[in-house]
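User: Can you predict the 3D structure for this chain?
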Amino acid sequence: MIRSLIKLAFLFPVFVFSQEVKPNIVFLLVDDVGWGDFGCYGANFNETPNIDKLSSQGMLFTNGYAACTVCSPSRAAILTGKYPARTHLTDWIDGHPYPHAKLKVPDWTMKMNHDEVLLPEALKEGGYNTVFLGKWHLMPIGQEDFESHYPTNHGFDINIAGREWGAPKGRGKYFSPFDMPNLDNGKKDDFLTDKLTDAAVTILDTINKEKPFLLYFSYYTIHGPIMAPKALISKYEEKAKTFKNTKNEYLNPARAGMVEKLDNSVGVLMQKLENLGIADNTIVILTGDNGGNYDETTNGLKGYKGFSHEGGTREPFLVKWPNKVKAGAVCNEKVIGTDFYPTILDMAGLKLKPKQHIDGLSIMPLLTGKKTKLKRDKLYWHYPHYHRTKPYGAIRNGDWKLIEFFEDGKLELYNLKTDPNETLNISESNPNKVKYLLKDLKKWRKSVGAQMMTPNPNYNAELADKRAKKKK
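Assistant: Here is the predicted structure, written as structure tokens:
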């Protein structure tokens, strides 16, 4: 099935856009991965030798961020180069209903609009073949135009497994049968991460060699349901018995098994690029869509997926670019998901689209070592929704981070240099800093047309409190 798809997708004549050989791009997007989940970011319980090797071959960013604390907005931000506040795609599709909450959620966008020129579309214009594998979660569930929003309707030549799901919901979940588009169900006990990796390897074997490619591998893992092969669960159960947990790591054997399967996948892909002789002309990027799930110790930071603090948005952020990025480099500059779009175009030698990726900056000067700072001091977040956190907005300016909670106007201020775990709210002792940052945050919201919440006529404090406790 996969080979037939590849033949159909790439049967068209090849056009030569440039004499220069453009780099291939492998973009690896991991779901619900915490900032501290990999060895290269400090993990000792999880075993990630292949990801750690990838890190040693390229640049590791210590201040890499997702554009939102949940998945769909972050994924859209990568593909559009725009903040979720600007596109109004601000929650996971189709979001949480909080009918009795104090504030009413705005009428936000629950799909990827066709008027956006997505990253794969821009690369196709530049002569690239484009392939999508894995989690999509950018489709309008239950709407009439549902069928027109698969990855193949948004710039990808091939879609394998991408559909409306935010997590595996097939009959076997992470185990066969998978019930995903263009992915056969395989044999009993086949694991989804392995199956998608096999599909990626097949594509790398047969993809048109005369054109560069984007392989956009969007893993379903490490999203729940948390499940792994029994042998791996047993391995980490045994390890947990004698493990000295000096860093307060999350000792979940099944989740550690999922991380190992992810790491194995990365190793297989990197070896395949070597075997095909294209590793030296292939950029590899690995990041996540939001913080780890279930416990803040999956991050090594305060909070986790759905929360307003660093654990909800700080991400692993790795870039390997042979002969361009110094092996083993570390960068402390602040970067965010919207930056991938202009950066990838820049790396490919293609013309930037500033009107499209308006909120992203090319970080190529950081990657090549020409600069250590970007012409940008501030990053912003806007989440007018209820989740594990109450609705909030946030700004990071240098080492300072201000969080504004919309329900009651509560403010939290942290200096991330001296207090990276956000343990001490110093807003009351720094009124001038709070005033400056809050004014900037409000000005930014107005400039991007951010949707704001309104008083909820159906507010019921007792029911709202019960709902909030249940979701936590």
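The first strand starts at residue 24 and ends at 30. The longest helix spans residues 253-275.
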